[in-house]
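HOLO CASE FILE
Compound: copper (II) ion
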Amino acid sequence: MQGSTIDPSKTVVNYHHAAAATDSHHEEHHDFRILGLIVFLIAEGMIFMGLFIAYLTFRAVTPNWPPEGTPRLELLLPGINTTILIASSFVIHKADAAVKQNNISGLRTWFIATALMGAVFLGGQLYEYWHLEFGLKTNIFASTFYVLTGFHGLHVTFGLLLILAVLWRSLKPNHYNSEKHFGVEAAEIYWHFVDVVWIILFFLLYIL
Amino acid sequence: MNIPNTILAMLVGILLTLVSLWYGQNHGLLPVAASDEAAQVDGLFNTMMTVATGLFIIVQGTLVIAAIRFRKRKGDNTDGPPVHGNVPLEILWTALPAVVVAWISIYSFEVYNAMGGFDPMAAGDSHAAHMSASSKMRGAAIAAPLPAADAENPPASAPSPNNLIAVGVGASPANRGQNADVSVNVTGLQYAWIFNYPDSNVSSGELHLPAGKEAQLNISAMDVLHAIWIPELRLKQDAIPGRTVELRFTPRRVGEYPLRCAELCGSYHGSMATKLIVQTPEDYASWLQSQQVASNPSLEKAVAVNPGNLSDSDFLAPYTTEMGMNPETLHQIHHTHH
Amino acid sequence: MTQAELQATANTPTHSPEPGQRKWWEYFTFNTDHKVIGIQYLVTGFFFYLIGGVLASAMRTELATPAPDFVTPELYNGIMTLHGTIMIFMWIIPAGAGFANFLIPLMIGARDMAFPRLNAVAFWIVPPAGILLLTSFFVKPPEAGWTSYPPLSETASKAGEFIWILSVLLFGTASILGAINFLITILKMRIPSMGFNQMPLFCWAMLATSGLILIGTPVLAGALILLAFDIVAGTAFFNPTGGGDPIVYQHMFWFYSHPAVYIMVLPFFGVASEVIPVHSRKPIFGYRAIAYSSLAISFLGLIVWAHHMFTSGTPAWLRMFFMIATMVIAVPTGIKVFSWLATMWGGKIRLNSTMLFAMGFISTFVVGGLTGVMVASVPFDLHVHDTYFVVAHLHYVLFGGSVFGIYAAIYHWFPKMTGRMLNEPWGIVHFVLTYVGFNLTFLPMHELGLLGMPRRVAMYDPQFAHINLICTIGSYLLAVSTIPFLVNAIWSWVAGPKAGDNPWQALTLEWMTTSPPAIENFEILPVLDIGPYDYGMGDRSTEVDVPFSEAKEPVLSAGPSSVLRADPDPSVAVNPSDRQPEE
Ligand code: HEM
Ligand SMILES: [Cu+2]
Ligand SMILES: [Cu+2]
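Model generated. Tokens follow.
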């Protein structure tokens, strides 16, 4: 046998310990899903980060920004839209608070409210697209504008579907309760993420 | 540790140093250096090669010695000694490489400065004045009929639409602040280089330069990325569509050197090569004069682009039509230049 | 009693009576067992490696003579692009993910990954992505190289390029999903007694790798999305004629793709740190230095990307910053290399196939590292950038580093994965052929680049003909070298001698279960009776024989009290002096 020998007298105690250590069984499978979602959102955030920095670079290297002939962006509608989206983050948090108190009807109410606000945001976004005087290919500003808002809109749509899925599941009795409500939490975190991204995006595209 | 061991270690160390120093100077891996700056780059490479040789021998030597000296003998089933680490040794082999790379960084910094890498002028884009060739480019064959720049078609002074900053290598510190002796506008296109001498309205498919005079290349591209590479000058610079990059250097050695494209630009990237011809100032002057006569405005001069040093130019013939620039890109170039 | 026996005795209760043999067809199903997924990754990867290798042989055949006489230059560029993409995205990275999947849960005493289903999803994205990539041969393969620089990638073979983008996006998604799993599994699912400083070094390496994947890959996705818009929708993000900027793409691309080289090589740094102590019968030298240098490399790896852009018109101060940052990476890398050498020094080295490949890994990787420092130097890189010098450098790192590491890992863990031993003599033949073939192929390429041969060319100046012929002959030798391996692996999998639990007398936890491991790895939580690298720790009196151990400060000394050692398990450590009362 390989290896140098170990003085058994030193290890006797140790077997005792080892035996003690083996008493602990596999603990119940912990729920790491929230953590997983957060790590996933860090990665998602990096896509947006990449696109934001690309936008800032295009802005920095182009002599006139936005390039000549780009109509000024209207602030009123996007402003309202932004307010709605930010407000919806608070609304969805109410739902989370409700489910923690086993208040499932409260959960549903607040989720319906969030879903409506999200839908209004998306509608407003489409309305804005419809009425903008530039198209995807007009110039580099227009292209970045559409890709950034469009990619974000895709995320809002996905968040909306997530919320609707949670609503659907909440119809089943006791699917969510104060103990078990991963879906609710996940939808909420995702919604906050979409919200934060929008705030940065709004600042970059409309204000800066 | 006993004394013979120490002496042995010292001898090995000295031998190692000597071998590294010798190989660092005598590797024979580089082509001739045609400028002073190229010779400095070689000095830097030789230094790095010396260090690398030393480290290479140390690592490979340790592997071989360990494999022989410390291999498991038949029947020996014991373990090695329980060595878990050694802090002083650990510090040593952290600090030593740190010092070496710091030193190489400083050395590189100085060579780069001597080459003109820090010339603030090279950062500007004040000389994007050579896109004229593109404005009348129509044909898209390997031997593009190139209208020589003439009075009706003056070099466009409008800078490229997006006046982007791109930095090459500028004047070496001694020449800083003054204009280069010879200025050449270089345009890369699939799959040829065009050299335009704005002071004398000459266009050529080969780069002629006078020895000992500082030259400035204003490099741009018409379609996709290219890169101008002159191995004997140890210089390379990407040609970027929409930007103009400056590259300044002083060739010293008279001769003909290959000039190759070093950035993948399409199928025939490998054949996108021509020559740098460094001539005595007198020869250069007479070449320039002969070109001026030849490029009479009414004359369309075919630019010879296919590399003379490629014996297999024949194979290209059947493909010439396929090799045209993308018409769309060409159209876009026109569009933005008017 | 030896250490391995000691560790095994302590873990007897965790040992299941039966090895977990799987049916062959289970490997073709959507299976959530991390061991199945690990093997799926490895076999899929190797399959694509063979395809990439065939493409490489085609390229070398073309380059045997200066004229483009074997394939057309267009096709050469297509083959070159697919070779690079397949080798990186379909072979090296999946192979790393394969070992990570198989080993991480076993090494940390978990029953599976944190998200087994997500894990299976991540794997099953890879084969379709690879097949999708290959279908581009039916249109016109992408011709812009694995870097896909615009504007060329936006004008040449658009359909192929679009397929390439889709495939790489799919692959990137798989890679991110895998990394989430590795990260959370390592952070959260270790046995309670295993602190960070008792983790096997492979886990440290995967921790660093996963971080890089999570931060880098999404940025590549961003770049590819914009590139796809340019190609499909006609926008002009990277097209200067429409006001765009091709350099922005390069920054976004390399922000991922420089870290990608560490994503490709860090797992195999981890493999070397596992394999070398086992087969040298000596503790790893400087556990902590190796562990933390992985983190240092992954951090530094994120701030050096523009060293690929020294000729792209990058401002001078940026060039200097990226030059210095790149050079600094040599320091943590050097620490690892020296530590591996010091681990071997004074050991009882078993010169078997595993160890030979591990030593071959050090030997060739070092060459790539040394040329890496050279190309980091801006003035010198202006000469060799985009030449065969870089081709040589990158293959010394990716082939000499990653592929040698993969082979070392296969020879080492094959018994655990299949329950059977590989044939040793054939392993050694495989090693010798690979090592000779590799150096014959790639060493002369350094000279080609220095003398003036650009990379990515289908035709070249006849002055380079002789050296190129040598490279081509070497590449055929390399192609032949895979045959003994393939035969050996297939034969041994079916009919090799039974391996037993711990054929190498190793101490990490994956060896404390059956071979192949039971379906859920361990019956109950395993324990680390002694540290993962505590070889030769029998009698503490040997400490006096250890060089440097006389140092006045015991924590600075070499022996078991060294600060650099992996922490012993405080509650169950073998030596009473290692035990600390639990807080
Ligand atoms: C089987 C032996 C191999 C041979 C003979 C080989 C040969 C080649 C050749 C001839 C090129 C083209 C160089 C050029 O035209 O610029 C190339 C490129 C490349 N190879 Fe390999 N190679 C091999 C294995 C590998 C492996 C294992 C990797 C691992 C990642 C790899 C990664 C690459 C990459 C990334 C490129 C660059 C592709 C590009 O420029 O887009 N190769 N190889
Ligand atoms: Cu080219
Ligand atoms: Cu890099």
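CASE NOTES: Chain B has a mean pLDDT of 75. The pocket of copper (II) ion (ligand 2) is lined by residues B 226, 261, 263, 265, 269, 272 (CB under 6 Å).
CLOSED: yes
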